[in-house]
């Protein structure tokens, strides 16, 4: 939109529309003759817009309208996204430069500012130089064509170089921080992998212990079922014995001896059964006690593992915090040392420059004073002659400038013929350049006439300047002594801070070594727990094998008892058969005896 000749209302509407825009990155309003309304709209745009990075306002005469320009500077101070601003040929005076300096103190994102061909002067240059002490982001500031002294320009260039170096150091520190963060993340990933591997191994061990527990529980249940079957068998045997006792009770009188034998066998059987039952209960209790001990050991081991996990997490957090603290301490050390070195170098350079200047000024002033005391009358005549020569030179310069104007006009005509495609832009630029050059020439002629008038007053002012220079020299010597004392104090503070930081770093190293020792001790404790878990597993295996052997022994004893019972039943059946045979023999004998007796014969006769 450069050189379009927009009206005040059009510029206001355009900038109001751009306030909420988020896509425009660069805005060129060169040569649109913006006034108070345009400057206020620009200030509002800078307050609200968040996308514009480059703003070109060349040839707009914004410095003429003080209220509008102050509003524009307020918007610039509140903006946090603009990076490049072009304010060439805007008739900005020293008051506008002060407003800009106040805005630059608040702005923290602007990197390039072009103020060439304005009317900033000495006061404006000083204001801009003072604002650069607080602004650390501005990398390029152009002040050519503003009647700013060379020493201020050099100081501004040094400040720009300092800001560029500072931003380069900041970029390097950011890159280093990014690399260190990557390394820290990789270390974290490795530690998490190691911790996950440990957790996996612990989980596997727990699963194996749970499997062995389930296997042992299944085996115990199988043993319990076998014992229950044996109890049922014993109950059935007891029922059978009771039946046999009921059958034998009928023949107790006949077989009393057999009854005593049976009672003895019963007592032996009951005592054997009770012994077996007590032994099985003891074995069950021992197995339950062992299982309870194993479960308690497992729960204690799991609690210890949880405690170790929590301790490992706390130690990792402490390591992270201490690493962050070390990194911040290192950054603070580097920043403070760099800033102090730069301040010391700048102070020394300023001292040397000011000493040289004042030595030269004192020497010049003394030589001039001696010449003036000796040759005051001659100097007045020489000054009149020099003024006449200056007037002649100024007339020659005016003639040469008029010739240059003619040459510029001819060059503009030739450029118009060669650049037919860009006629509108070139015409406007040529007109503005001619107007500015004419204004500069008129200002130079006016300055020459004023310098002729001022040269007559220089003789009177030179004596006052000598006295002021001597007073300034004394003040500067006092200021130099104060700066030296300040530098010594800063060096002492630096040494004390470095010693404190060294002690803190040593303390952190000692704490890290202690934490590493604690971690190693915890690792040894974990290895001991693993060995205990392995020993418990071996004990479980030994107990299971012992249970199997005991069960096999009990099964063998039960089989022996069953064989004994079968033998006893066979003996009882055999004894019953013998008693039955004896009873039959007795009956036959009795019958034979009865038949052979006289009672039997009588009964048979009847």
From TrEMBL:
SMART domains on file: LRR_RI
Keyword Signal: no
Coiled-coil blocks: 220-254, 298-578
Main location: cytoplasm
UniProt-recorded name of the protein: LRC45 protein
Taxon lineage: Eukaryota, Metazoa, Chordata, Craniata, Vertebrata
InterPro entries named among the record's database cross-references: Centro_Cilium_Assembly (IPR052116), Leu-rich_rpt (IPR001611), LRR_dom_sf (IPR032675)
Location(s) in or outside the cell: Cytoplasm, Cytoskeleton, Microtubule organizing center, Centrosome
Cellular component annotations (GO), alphabetically ordered: centrosome; plasma membrane
Keywords for this protein: Coiled coil, Cytoplasm, Cytoskeleton
